[in-house]
Amino acid sequence: MNGFNAVKKGCCQHKKALKRTLIVLIFCSVLFCALVFAAIHGAARLFNHTMARQTMLRGTVTVETLAPHITGYVQFTNLVWKDPDGHLILYVPDGSLSVRPWDIIARSIKSTTLTNITLNDATIVAYFDEKNHLDILTQDEEKKDGTEKKQPRSFQDRIRNINWNGQKLHASLDLHNCQLESYHMSRHYIMESVNAHIGVYTGKRADIQVSTGRFAGTAVGDGIAIKGKIDLTTKIPTIDLHTDIVNVDPSSLGFGDNIHDQMTLTFHATGPLDQPEARGRLHMERLNLPALRFTDVSGDVYYRDSLLQFTQVKAKVYGGTLDAYGDYNLETRAYNIYGHGEDLNSSTALHDMKFRTLVAMDITMRCDGNPRHLRAYGSFQSGSGYYFPLHFNSISGRFNNRYHELDFYDVVISTAMGDIATDALHIVNGDVQFSPVRIRDAESGETTELHGLDNYKEGKETQAAIGRNIKSLGQSMKSINKTIKDMKNSLDF
């Protein structure tokens, strides 16, 4: 019994000691966390104080928390960088950087001390000046004697000698799910879900791998992917980059007001950084233009000096084919497109089996950069066919389309009994307007002119009216031409 009491007394003493130990450990943990928290915020205050005195970066840089580790890994939160005017350059809710621990221990801080910067969910804003320069670093200061300023470095020299206060960089930048905003004069771009790995090695090379989600602003699309490198060993840095621009909205590039069929461009860009050139391909599953419906559009693309040139462009249209070429100026958004179509099926185009013929067409599209100034014009020539019950040998003419106004000129319908011609047919906001129609007899050469044709609305009413008109023209031709032979050649029975 005495033994049991001794064990019980010992257990109670150990239990109390364990409680006291746990209390001490909890207190120490809380104290440690408090010290760490204070150290983090203290490091942040020290960082903010240092950044307030720095002269390399334009503007101000502040951070909320900064947590260094003995391994050289430093984590930070809520980093904010603003330019002198208060505009946001960088906001990082969560990020980290890696440094060489020995440099920190030896107090030998140099450019190569920094090895990596990682930004998570950051917002990056880039403002470019009129010369397309991004100035986030302070300009070179006057010499100590104040007698002379350093000459501004060229764009090529800036890129080739990317440095930190004159010292070389050997570091990488990783972006995870960031947003990139770019502003240049009247243009702006916003890219979502930006993921990137960029390695910079001054005097050697820069490795680039970037992918984005949707982008909007001056141009709209589903994403951009860039992969390649920049050679920094040459006098003028040279690029070797593969670029994909996925599902661009043509209207956002100025190709018409309401053309939203998606276009994908793939490029391989090479050459000097200040004057690169790129070759690639374009593809569109479909392209819907007024009165024209293209599918399977593809061709070659060449870029140089802000000019995109399209060659060997091929497409399917109304059962036929189109061959085209043209150019597009990225600066002015002006473009020219030239095309030639063959074997376009009229019944497919008009959704009317009563009108059957194959048509060849030449088309030119010009725009000065304003989508409302787009002008499409050209000519067409058909083979033999019929618009039931009228047979014809050919239909030819010219057309001009400009902002809701479609005009046809020199339209001639040639038949065995003679020609039906009109100088102009206009479609303005859906209304069809005819100029006088001339009917020339094939045998006598005499011409009859018809006036006063009413305006017609598009749709079924238009087709019915045109059908009645053609029927009356057929009856007029019957009275002019008395031979049954020509009637058999011109009419179906």
Automatic annotation (TrEMBL):
Keywords: Membrane, Transmembrane, Transmembrane helix. It comes from Megasphaera hexanoica. It comes from the Bacteria. The chain crosses the membrane at residues 21-44. This is Membrane biogenesis protein AsmA.
